[in-house]
C-alpha cells in the first residue's frame, strides 16, 4: 500500500505566503518524487484549542486534524523560529498530542506507534538545531519514530532581514537535506508499515 504524508505548517500567518510554506512545499515535492501521497494543513487557519486532550469541546478543530495525523504514515512538522523557539502553534499541536500517552491499545501502543516524523525549520537567525532537538524529543515522547537526518532547515544571517522565501535559489545544501529527509523517512515508514512495533 502507498505511504501517506501529512505536512503541518506551523507558521503564525493565517494566510498568504510564508518561508515555512516554501520549505514545506519543497519537502512535499521530494515525497511526491518518490510516488508518495501528500497533503498539507496550515494550523493558523484552524481553531486548535489549548489543552492536552484529544477533544477540547465545541468548536475545537483538533479532533479532525488528529485523525489526519493518525491516518498518515509520515508527519512533517514545519515551523519558523521565533525567539529561538518553535512557533506557539507548533507547541500547541505537540501539547494536544500529549493525549496519545493515555490512548494506548491493548498492547500498550500509542496511536502514533509505527508513524514516522520529520522536521522542517526556517528562520533568519541561528537556532535550527535547538528547535529540531525540541521537536524530535517531543514527537518521540508521544510515540513517533525519527529516521536519520530527518530535518531540513535554513537560517539566514543573525539580525538580518532576508527570509527563506526571499531567496532566488534554494541552496544546494538545503536541497540535499530535503532529499535525504524524504528518502530516509519514507524508508523507515515503509519498514514500520510492514512490520509494526510489537508492543507489550
Q: Alpha-carbon distance between the termini? A: 26 Å
Strand content: 15-25%
- SSE order: EHEHEEHEHEH
How many strands appear in the DSSP assignment? 6
Mean pLDDT: 96
- Summing up helix and strand content along with how strands pair, one would put the structural category as alpha/beta
Biggest sheet: strands, sense, closure?
6 strands, mixed
Provide the CATH architecture: 3-Layer(aba) Sandwich
Question: What is the radius of gyration?
Answer: 16 Å
Could you say what the CATH topology is called? Rossmann fold
Tell me what you see in this structure.
β3 and β4 form a beta hairpin. By secondary structure, the protein is α/β, with parallel strands linked by helices. Strands 1, 2, 3, 4, 5 and 6 form a six-stranded mixed β-sheet that branches. α1 crosses α5 (172-194). 36% of the residues lie in helices and 21% in strands. The chain contains five helices and six strands; from the N terminus they run βαβαββαβαβα. The protein has a single domain, classed as Rossmann fold (3-Layer(aba) Sandwich), CATH 3.40.50.360.
Give a short overview:
This protein has five helices and six strands. With 200 residues, the protein is an alpha/beta fold. Helix 1 crosses helix 5 (172-194).
